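Exercise 7. Given the components listed, write out the predicted structure of the assembled complex. Treat all entries as one system.
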Amino acid sequence: AQSVAQPEDQVNVAEGNPLTVKCTYSVSGNPYLFWYVQYPNRGLQFLLKYITGDNLVKGSYGFEAEFNKSQTSFHLKKPSALVSDSALYFCAVRDYNNNDMRFGAGTRLTVKP
Amino acid sequence: DAGVIQSPRHEVTEMGQEVTLRCKPISGHDYLFWYRQTMMRGLELLIYFNNNVPIDDSGMPEDRFSAKMPNASFSTLKIQPSEPRDSAVYFCASSLVGPNEKLFFGSGTQLSVL
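Answer.
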């Protein structure tokens, strides 16, 4: 079965600095990878996805993610962090065959002024 | 479109009571998912439906949990009897068919079982 891992429970960065939230995946076929963000007391919101093609995917709010097949990684990045980016970030993988979506444990991003 | 609509937003009940959570997916979406979120276990997939048919309920914790989707615009997740360890945020999500399609989440139901 497909799965994703987020090795960091917490990431702290200073405002204006670049940020990276890590994700690795395990799938039996082609990966369909997603990033979601969750703000307090809200549902998850879609940020971006990788299906095929360019390894650098651009998404909402200035976020991007880099797909690396050899390292089975799909790290979320942003060149310059904002305090308002502070939230819980989830990496997810959707299965080609049965279409269910599995999420990582989540990484809490804190951007300090 | 109003998005995925869940009700109630908050539910407080006593142990042993029946709890019913409701979800209205986005019109035209073929898939509906129920997730549970807790601090300890993160976001767990409980069950999902394709065209109103349950596909995988292996994530349902035990027989006290049941889910139905009587039509394309409505689903329920029922817990009977409820226990304090069921306290969590329950999310419903829907999507179009296909592994490349994103999920749209509702705002969740915060369940507290006393």
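Discussion: Residues 32 and 51 of chain A are 5 Å apart (CA to CA). Chain A touches chain B at residues 32, 34, 36, 42-46, 49, 51, 90, 94-96, 98-106 (CB under 8 Å).
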